[in-house]
Prior knowledge:
Elements lengths: L6 H16 L2 H10 L15 H7 L12 H12 L14 H7 L3 H23 L8 E3 L16 E3 L1 H17 L5 H6 L3 E3 L2 E3 L5 E4 L3 H11 L6 E5 L5 H7 L5 E6 L2 H9 L8 E5 L2 H11 L3 E6 L6 H15 E9 L8 H18 L1 E9 L22 E9 L2
Parallel strand pairs: 1-2, 6-7, 6-9, 7-8, 9-10
Antiparallel strand pairs: 3-4, 4-5, 11-12
Helix pairs in contact: 1-2, 1-3, 3-4, 4-6, 5-6, 6-14, 9-10, 12-13, 13-14
The chain binds S-adenosylmethionine.
GO cellular component, one term: nucleus
Keywords: Cytoplasm, Methyltransferase, Nucleus, S-adenosyl-L-methionine, Transferase
Subcellular location: Cytoplasm; Nucleus
Amino acid sequence: xxxxxxxxxxxxxxxxxxxxxxxxVPALKILLKEGSANVQDPTATVATSPLHAAIAACGKxxxxxxxxxxxxxxxxxLLENGGIWNxxxxxxxxxxxxxxxxxxxxxYEILVEAGVRAELLFSKMxxxxxxxxxxxxxxxxxxxxxxxxxxxxxxxxxxEDAKAIQEIVEEQVxxxxxxxxxxxxxxxxxxxxxxxxxxxxxxxxxxxxxxIMQRHAETLIPKAGLRVMNVGHGMGIVDxxxxxxxxxxxxxxxAHPQVHQRLREQGWYDKPNVHIHxxxxxxxxxxxVEKGVVLDAIYYDTFAEDYKALKEFFSEYVVQLLDxxxxxxxxxxxxxxxxxxxxxxxxxxxxxLHEAGFDTEWEDIRVPAGLHGSNQWEGTRRPYWTIDVxxxxxxxxxx
Length: 399
Ligand SMILES: C[S@@+](CC[C@H](N)C(=O)[O-])C[C@H]1O[C@@H](n2cnc3c(N)ncnc32)[C@H](O)[C@@H]1O
């Protein structure tokens, strides 16, 4: 949000928000030449962006107020001018949350598309070294042979600032180990009945996901005698399901020492055809590729890793390890605490998988009734699942 200070700025912000609220496209076009699509009115009791205001003004579709062309054009204009698809208002709602609860399907779809475009662009910029952590460059960097990047894309920070930023990041990780895979892997886990918790009280795995895990195993392993790999053992739910399909080879990659201990206690190392690979998949998989391992089914469900890791997993390794007629699945849980984020990540994944050479089929699975707000989440840091439908992916190579 722009920092509104002067009276003039406040007035401009009010006019932009008001034009957005009235779906007055011509006025908005003129105002956006002077001001930003991301202003907030600091004098308003309920802080709102122009996007939030435009969508809230549509009202509820089920009450006969389906958004008209002007509302749609307003939302499109704001997005074209830098309106942020996942900006939060004071009620912790994105514009998409308002569209969804008002059942404004047309607007919701526009926001999902905008989210997908933004995420794809962000990831491209990261790949090109134009975003994320790569922005931080120390002041005394005297490598002037390197091409200079636009100032907006690259921030120069002093050594002191870089250290301060590093300290803040480390503090955040100390508070929540799930923000960093290596910190998580060093942290103490607690196995409790029906739940696995990390040191920061994040639920790593919960037994309400059993039906989902069983379905993943069923869809990936259609017959006995296949070569299967699961990455991330957790509570062993999916591995137990995989065993019921009599695999010829069952590889398990797991990096946490306490999970190795549990695998040992439960006799997994002695099961016929089970091969346990201790270590991070990032270290284990290059060795398996080198050995020429080929698999009929691969499943991925790790923890404290982001979408970038999943993308690296399928575009670097699944493409090399999977038999041409094999199947790949992963735990589709990114963004599952907000419907629009879930829908955006699901689409981004499908597009990236397509680029990597996969077709994706989705199966919708309803999560157990009564999960939301239930006492199953007691003692956990936050409920990581608040939506109603799990979208289960099965990927095969494009033919
Ligand atoms: C969500 S749990 C998996 C749950 C499992 N699907 C089940 O059915 O119980 C994630 C697991 O991935 C492991 N893990 C996290 N990062 C990893 C990595 N980089 N390489 C291998 N395993 C990892 C965690 O230690 C944890 O056991």
